[in-house]
């Protein structure tokens, strides 16, 4: 690995670390309604919104009421998105000569659920499917809606640890609008203006018809690109205005926009570790979770980098290249280093925004983002969702430690009883159950196999499991070799998205409700401290062992077998 790559990675992680404390404190103040000078601006806007929506800001909710409000808002947002997309032919700025991919009912359903659940899985081709109104009114709104709801869920979960004998987790709608007005909108306005200054379009012009220097005719899409491109990263949504996503020079024109885009993906989820420490008055525990995330992130980053630098030996044996690096599917503007950084960042950050084609990565290089999504999006993860995913793994770790020492497990002065561990088990089993079952169905049905139009064998298996892992992780990136715009995949990936959103968030809220009803316990000297390097090692070991038990067979049959074949193994 060259010094330039190391410097880029060091600067990126340093920037994240420096922003964790100030942003984490700001999120905590927002969720706890701490008075600030910004109240002069935001309080009148919030009060007007509550009055128009009939919301009683003083009314708290238990976990069931909170979860029901979350579900209703998400599904209501999905219906709105569906309606806009189905009606886009009657709305302004629809250019039928360029909209060559029609929006079928199943595609509209899939896309609506995708954006409402922060998955932004794109079975469609952005600029040839969605009109400007659909991009602005539906997809941008969906990005804000899903992100604000995620922040609210994360805040409610943390309150479960900070409460004592009090089932009040806050008011979902208050948390939602405070996150929207005080975090997402201001940051997105600044970020979008930065993108415009860097050359990202923000207009409603017709598509431009040009003749290239080679004499070929080309259509260049225009549109309100900047409005979508920043919130998709900040809200850990993903997707993109263009079909090639962050590899398009209009969406990601410079190395600086690439760096800021990647930073926007992880900075708020990382800051939630400090928010957790602040709201529970256990800042050392919050920093411990952050360190765990950074360690796992770094392992994946260097592992993927190593594989992409080694490249494909079969190509190097046939064609004498000046370098063995795997540059297939990568933008030469970014090269290996920033392509790998983007792949790692987007796969751990619940954000399917990419600047290279992951389908063209080496087998093990492509396995790294796949594993990141399979194990639960806890390495930074989504806003709010990343922190509760990591804590669920911490609870499972403490349960295992408790079994070893023969004591009732505890975490942050809360007992992990039978009901709590059942909810943790439900959470950890939801992903392998839906991902592996849907993959198996796709592999034995004609409609599922029909999506493998370019690859079969181990790589075809990886493409299918990648699609369902990405959908369930509410991530959205894909191996582009899979033709996913079919009724079969539109329906089954939508199922995976909803399980990944609701079947994880609802058990987490139930878990928060159980902890909120417990009295605060004194720290027990018999249990392992949860703010030490030893806990980081045990936590990572638990994640590796449990992840391996769940997914090892699928990974062996897919990318690992493909890697053996690539290196002229004796398996075939």
Provide a descriptive summary of the structure in words.
This protein starts with a helix and ends in a 6-residue tail after the last helix. By secondary structure, the protein is mainly alpha-helical. 65% of the residues lie in helices and 2% in strands. Strand 1 and strand 2 form a beta hairpin. It is globular and about 75 Å long.
Q: Low-confidence runs (pLDDT<50, min 5 residues)?
A: none
Question: What strand order characterises the main sheet?
Answer: 1-2
Which radius of gyration do the C-alpha atoms yield?
Answer: 23 Å
Class per helix and strand makeup: mainly alpha
Return the average pLDDT rounded to an integer.
87
Number of helices: 19
- What distance separates the N and C termini? 32 Å
What series of H and E elements makes up the topology? HHHHHHHEEHHHHHHHEEHHHHH
**Strand element count:** 4
What proportion strand? under 5%
- Could you describe the largest sheet, including whether it forms a barrel? 2 strands, antiparallel
Tell me roughly what share of residues is in helical segments: 55-70%
- The dominant shape is globular
Describe the secondary-structure layout.
Layout lengths: L2 H30 L6 H15 L9 H24 L18 H12 L9 H4 L2 H31 L9 H26 L10 E4 L5 E4 L4 H10 L20 H25 L3 H28 L2 H6 L16 H14 L14 H12 L10 H21 L4 E2 L2 E2 L2 H27 L1 H4 L7 H16 L14 H31 L15 H34 L6
Antiparallel strand pairs: 1-2, 3-4
Helix pairs in contact: 1-9, 2-7, 3-4, 3-6, 3-18, 4-18, 6-7, 6-8, 6-14, 6-18, 7-8, 8-9, 9-10, 9-12, 10-12, 10-13, 10-19, 12-13, 13-17, 13-19, 14-15, 14-19, 15-17, 15-18, 17-18, 17-19
């Amino acid at each position: 690995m060259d010094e330039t790559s190391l410097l880029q990675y060091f600067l990126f992680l340093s920037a994240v670390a420096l922003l964790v404390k100030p942003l984490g404190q700001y999120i905590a103040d927002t969720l706890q309604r701490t008075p600030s000078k910004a109240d002069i601006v935001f309080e009148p806007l919030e009060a007007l919104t509550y009055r128009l929506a009939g919301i009683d800001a003083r009314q708290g909710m238990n976990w069931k009421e909170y979860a029901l409000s979350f579900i209703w808002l998400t599904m209501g947002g999905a219906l709105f998105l569906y309606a806009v997309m189905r009606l886009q032919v009657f709305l302004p700025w629809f250019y039928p000569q360029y909209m060559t991919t029609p929006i079928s009912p199943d595609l509209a359903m899939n896309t609506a659920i995708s954006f409402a659940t922060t998955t932004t899985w794109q079975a469609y081709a952005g600029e040839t499917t969605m009109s400007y109104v659909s991009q602005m009114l539906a997809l941008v709104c969906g990005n804000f809606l899903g992100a604000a709801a995620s922040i609210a869920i994360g805040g409610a979960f943390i309150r479960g640890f900070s409460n004592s004998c009090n089932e009040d987790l806050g008011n979902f709608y208050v948390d939602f609008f405070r996150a929207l007005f005080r975090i997402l909108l201001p940051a997105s306005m600044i970020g979008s203006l930065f993108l415009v200054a860097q050359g990202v379009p923000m207009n409603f012009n017709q598509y431009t018809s040009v003749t290239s220097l080679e004499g070929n005719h080309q259509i260049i899409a225009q549109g309100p690109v900047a409005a979508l491109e920043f919130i998709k990263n900040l809200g850990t949504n993903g997707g993109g205005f263009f079909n090639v996503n962050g590899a398009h020079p209009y969406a990601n024109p410079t190395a600086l926009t690439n760096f800021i885009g990647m930073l926007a993906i992880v900075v708020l989820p990382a800051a939630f570790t400090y928010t957790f420490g602040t709201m529970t008055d256990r800042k050392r525990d919050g920093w411990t979770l952050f360190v765990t995330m950074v360690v796992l992130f770094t392992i994946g980053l260097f592992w993927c980098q190593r594989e992409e630098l080694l490249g494909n030996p079969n190509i190097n044996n046939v064609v004498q290249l000046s370098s063995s690096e795997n540059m297939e599917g990568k933008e030469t503007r970014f090269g290996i280093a920033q392509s790998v950084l983007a792949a790692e960042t987007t796969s751990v950050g619940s954000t399917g925004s990419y600047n290279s084609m992951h389908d063209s990565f080496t087998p093990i290089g492509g396995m790294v983002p796949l594993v990141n999504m399979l194990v639960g999006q806890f390495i930074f993860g989504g806003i709010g969702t990343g922190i509760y995913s990591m804590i669920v793994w911490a609870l499972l770790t403490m349960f295992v430690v408790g079994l070893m020492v023969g004591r009732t497990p505890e975490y942050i002065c809360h007992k992990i009883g039978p009901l709590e561990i059942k909810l943790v088990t439900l959470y950890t089993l939801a992903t392998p159950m839906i991902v592996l079952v849907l993959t198996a169905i796709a592999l034995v049905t004609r409609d599922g196999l029909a999506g493998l139009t370019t690859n079969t064998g181990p790589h075809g298996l990886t493409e299918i499991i990648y699609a369902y892992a990405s959908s369930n992780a509410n991530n959205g990136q894909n191996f582009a070799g899979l033709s996913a715009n079919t009724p079969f995949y539109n329906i089954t990936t939508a199922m995976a998205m909803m399980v990944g959103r609701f079947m994880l968030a609802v058990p987490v809220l139930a878990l928060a409700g159980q902890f909120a009803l417990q009295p605060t316990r004194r720290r027990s000297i018999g249990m392992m401290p949860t703010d030490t390097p030893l806990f980081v090692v045990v936590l990572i070991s638990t994640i590796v062992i449990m992840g391996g038990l769940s997914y090892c067979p699928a990974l062996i049959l897919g990318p690992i077998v493909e890697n053996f074949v690539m290196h002229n193994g004796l398996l075939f």
